[in-house]
Amino acid sequence: MVDIAAPRETVFDVVARPYPGRTPRAMRGRLHVLERGSDLVLAEHFTPLAGGRLHAVTVETVRFTRPERIDFRLVRGPVPQVTESFVLEDSGAGTLLVYEGELGTDLWRLGQRWGDAVAARWEAAVAASLASVGAEAERRAAPRR
């Protein structure tokens, strides 16, 4: 959960920005949109591992429900099932961004160990993403001088 000093629409726009239109140059090494629809995209996400020497590649659907949520569903990746949501709630001073995520594995104990390893990296990537979204949304919402 992250409290962001910016309007909900601004936060939504920051999260959604790389998906519906042309992928920003800064995101090209981390994101490739395969298909675009009016409220749904199919996108490859690249997450650096081992100090950037390796990359985990996931393919996910991303659904946009303006202005309150963005949902991610894993199609292909290192585990059989992941669903995630960024839920945006109005708060007194801006927006409360709530992250909800669920990771599922198979193969019993072996799958559970693998899921634990993947989850640690996944959570770090999500935390970095939330911090980046918060900083950019607050920058956009700041009064211009």
UniProtKB/TrEMBL annotation:
Superkingdom of the organism of origin: Bacteria
Family annotation (Pfam families): Polyketide_cyc2 (PF10604)
Annotated protein name in UniProt: SRPBCC family protein
Source organism of this protein record: Streptomyces cacaoi
